[in-house]
Amino acid sequence: MPGIPRSIAASVSLSAAVLLSVPAVPAVPAAAATPADRLPCRPGSGPHLAGRDLTRMTLPADLSCADLRGARLDGLTVRVPLVGADLTGASLKGAHLGYAQMAGARLRKADLSEAELYYADLRGSDLRGATMDDSSPYYAHFEGADLSGATMARAKTYDAQFDDAKLVGVDLTDAAAYGADMRRADLTRVKAPKARLYGATFIRTVLRQADLSGAQLYESVMTGADFRGADLTGADLRDVRDARLTGSKGVPRFLPAPDRACKPGSGQDYRGWDLTSVADFPDDLSCADLTGAKLDGVDLTGVTLDRAILRDVSAAGASLRSAKGADLRGARLWRAKLSSADLAGANLSGADLSGAALGSATLTRARLAGADLRDAEMTSVTADQADFTGARMDRAYLHHGTYRDAVFRNAVLTDADLSDAELRGATFEGAEVTGLNQDFAEDIDLSGSSSRMSVGWLIFFGIAGLTVFWIAAGVTTAKVRRRRAAREQAAERAVRFEEARRVQEENVTRLGEEIDSVSDRTGEVDWNAVLDAYDAAKEALARAHDMSDLTDVETIVARGRKALTRRR
């Protein structure tokens, strides 16, 4: 070509060759993913513009397979083909790439933040580690592309095609990906909290360890999707089709309505979970398995738990409203709020319902064998054909209840209140009915039951008996003390008497000695009086039994001495 430099002529020739070799790409590709091995040229073999700032340059008419590594294309409107181009580490921030032809392109660690990529063809492209935050690849084609480690926070990828794509660890936080087709895509460890993914297709999609907390997934198709380890806390799964959430964690806010004929345990699996911190529960957890779960104080009044397995749950103070046919064996429902609850056909055998509020609850055909219903409030309960065999119902308030054909065999109804209850056909064989209030109870038949003295009377008589015992014991003790004191006083008196008797005995003896010592036997002494006194003193001493008798002895001796000393 005369007048044209050889380098430019070579470039034009290369561009023309590339244009002739690249097949036309429709504006909205609908074909299957184009693998890299079908590219018309080797990536990086086209124009060499690596590291160039292309923001002020006129782009070549074709950049297919161009070497644009580290190039800068920020804000550019790119209409030329980029099929198979190598844009590794390139900056395309805010670039206008709508309808771009980028199949098989290398965009590893490229910056595509805020870029417009609507309807772009990125099939089979390498976007590993790329930054696509706030980008707009809606209706774009990513079939077979590898986006592992890319960030797409707040990206608008709705109705995009991700068939067979790899999105391992991709950040889709708050992204708008509704209607996207992600069949067979690998979204392992994807971060998609609060992402809008409703109406999307997840057929055979891998979502292991994915963070889908708070994500909107309603009306999506999930046939064969793998959710093992995925966090679905607060996710919206209403009207999802063919979802199998086995192995997932977290409690979704909404779940698809279970099959009305679902089998117990076939629903969500929350065995052993601590659910006390969950703020929003799905409306329907029918057939879920919550064996051993912790639900203390949780409000489940808006949750349907029909045919759910709730064996051995800890739900003290919890509120339940619908658990028809549920398995609540061994459940700890102490002080639970079950007013107006529908527990028809539920199995509550061995459950702890002590102090529970069951007013107006439905317990028709429920099994409560061995249950603890002490102090339970059961006003106006409907419990026709319910089985209370062996239940502890001390002080239970069963006022105005309906218990037609109910079974109370061997139940303990001590001080319970069945007044105004309807009990036609109810069985009380072997029941303990001491203190049972049955005023105005209809058709009650306590045949075979037993009653003993009520606890109140037992307490009364026990207190009375103790009172009598203590009074008798007090009287006896007083008598014993008085007798002991009397014996002690008698002993003391005997000792004093003996001492006084010896004194008077010596006194009488001295009187005799004084009589013998008198030598004058003349008629001046009244010897008759002296000797009479001496004899009387000896006789009085011999007869003496108390101190007064000894006083008499002393008086007689004194009279004898006086007579001895007196002269006629």
TrEMBL record:
<feature type="transmembrane region" description="Helical">
    <location>
        <begin position="455"/>
        <end position="478"/>
    </location>
</feature>
<dbReference type="InterPro" id="IPR001646">
    <property type="entry name" value="5peptide_repeat"/>
</dbReference>
<keyword id="KW-0472">Membrane</keyword>
<keyword id="KW-0732">Signal</keyword>
<keyword id="KW-1133">Transmembrane helix</keyword>
<keyword id="KW-0677">Repeat</keyword>
<keyword id="KW-0812">Transmembrane</keyword>
<dbReference type="Pfam" id="PF00805">
    <property type="entry name" value="Pentapeptide"/>
</dbReference>
<feature type="signal peptide">
    <location>
        <begin position="1"/>
        <end position="27"/>
    </location>
</feature>
<protein>
    <submittedName>
        <fullName>Pentapeptide repeat-containing protein</fullName>
    </submittedName>
</protein>
